[in-house]
Design brief:
Elements lengths: L11 H24 L3 H11 L4 E2 H8 L3 H13 L3 E5 L7 E5 L1 H21 L5 H21 L6
Antiparallel strand pairs: 1-3, 2-3
Length: 153
């Protein structure tokens, strides 16, 4: 006889991770294949696209990833000419990272590909409502993370 226990597969967090993995594979098949930009690179460039330049610490904070990983990835993007690095006048110990003209041009190539993929992906789903729910979920999760308590979630 089968147990009546609820499967972990029903949990939202498990489902989101699974969906993220599938979407990442789709991105690899489209964006990486067509413009040569890895998902991880796109993630960082997307953060930089919304600013005039930010520090590595701030990128790591916004992306919720390790600063060392961000630094390694940014070095590769800089070698490719997709990002720039400059020291702050106020504090030369701090570097500000920004998108180069080449990086911005590449993102302009990616936008229609990503937008078309999202349209197909959200077929039959109330886009505005779904995005509002995702925003709320992110706000809730970030608040729990900021709380610092593993039991907070």
């Amino acid at each position: 006889m089968r147990s009546k226990r609820k499967s972990l597969e029903d949990l939202v967090a498990v489902r989101i991770v699974r969906i993220a993995e599938v979407i990442a594979r789709l991105a690899t098949q489209t964006i990486e294949a067509q413009v040569g930009l890895r998902n991880t690179d796109l993630r960082l460039m997307n953060l930089l696209d919304r600013s005039d330049g930010i520090t590595v610490n701030e990128i790591a904070r916004r992306a919720h990833v390790d600063k060392a990983w961000v630094s390694r990835s940014l070095r590769e993007l800089q070698k490719s000419g997709l990002v720039t690095r400059r020291s702050l006048r106020e504090d030369s110990r701090l570097c500000v990272i920004g998108l180069s003209a080449k990086g911005r041009a590449l993102l302009e190539q990616v936008r229609p590909l990503a937008s078309a993929r999202e349209t197909r992906l959200l077929a039959g789903i109330d886009r505005a409502g779904f995005k509002a729910d995702l925003d709320r979920l992110m706000t809730n999760a970030a608040a729990k993370l900021a709380n610092g308590s593993p039991a907070a979630l």
